[in-house]
Amino acid sequence: MASSFKTRAKLEKNHFGYIFIAPFFITYFVFQIIPLINTFYYSLTDIKAWYVNPEMNYKFVGFDMFKMVLTEDAFKRAFVNTPVMWIMGFIPQLLIALLLASWFTNEKIRVKGQGFFKVVFYMPNIMTATTIGLLFLAFIRPNGFIHNFAIAVGYLKNPQMPFVSGWFGRGVVAFINFWMWYGQTMIVLIAGIMGINPSFFEAASIDGASGWQSFWRITLPLIRPIMTYSLVTSLIGGFQMFDVPNMMGNGDNAALFRFDIQTIVMYIKGIATEGSNSIGKACAASVFLFLITAVCSSVLFYLTSDRAEAKAKRLEKKRAKEAALQEGGDL
Length: 331
What we know:
Blueprint: H1 2-13, H2 15-42, H3 64-71, H4 73-104, H5 114-122, H6 129-140, H7 145-152, H8 166-194, H9 198-206, H10 211-222, H11 224-239, H12 243-248, H13 251-254, H14 264-273, H15 279-304, H16 307-330
Helix pairs in contact: 2-15, 3-15, 4-8, 4-11, 4-14, 5-8, 6-7, 6-8, 11-15, 14-15
């Protein structure tokens, strides 16, 4: 009875907290959970487009739409392009962000004007992806800055010759993603490094450790959770890449390597709104995207986790349990 009274009193005391967090969960349920369930549902049907057929006459076809998606060359091409462009952009993004974060937090270097540099490096992140895509699209068009530079260095012989290399298109998309997000990653890593107890670095300095040794032995292990967060969120955003490659694939010049920068989301939009207007097939591709993202995120969590620490915790729990059982047996 007393326990029930305490629980009810605790709920009454914290009811304002539940009220404040309720809008988030309601919004998440309405705009995330319900659409996700509908996506799984319609992926098993042959529905075309409900705005064309208001009666939504469709039938269940099982996994036929999944088989159809897997056999299409466009999906296979998008399945390769998406992770390739993400990796090309994320590796320099993480390395540059980590280097800048270590510089800005190093008490020996004491970089002047840190506030100015942080704002400048972060500024591309506040610009919309569409705006940046249009900017770089103007650069690579004939008589654009990058186009003229390629002619000056001899990469292009004819001033009217457009860029036709698929790897050039992937490189441009990867560079844009790197340029937009390295500042944000830098800020996150700076916050993680500043959260490390300074006494660790002082002890390492007293022991004669070099700056590289302190960074490798202290900084990197202690910011592992922050790096995992950056890695997983970047992976999710990379697999949902759409704005930049879609904008870069427009126009007469960029259309030459449009299919070389086509992403999974571009493929989904294409089959959902163009041509066959197959909502069922688009939902099946969306389910594939969801599963791929979930599997890759799980793998990254596993690879970046501190398995030695987790093993030590499991061993400690096992020993505590055995000790409790032994103590109970003695009684």
